[in-house]
Amino acid sequence: MIDSLEALDSYISKVDSYISKELGKKEKILEQIKANSDLINNIQSEIDLIEKVSLLLQRTSEFARNQAKVQIESLVTNCLQYIFDSNVEFEIEIEESYGKPSAEFFVITRADNTIIKTKPELSRGGGIVDIISLALRIAFLQVHKPKIEGPLILDEPAKHVSEDYIFNVADFLKRTSEMFNRQIIMVTHNNHLSSIGTNAYRVSMKGTESQVEKITPN
Question: What is the rounded CA–CA span in Å between residue 161 and residue 189?
Answer without folding.
Answer: 13
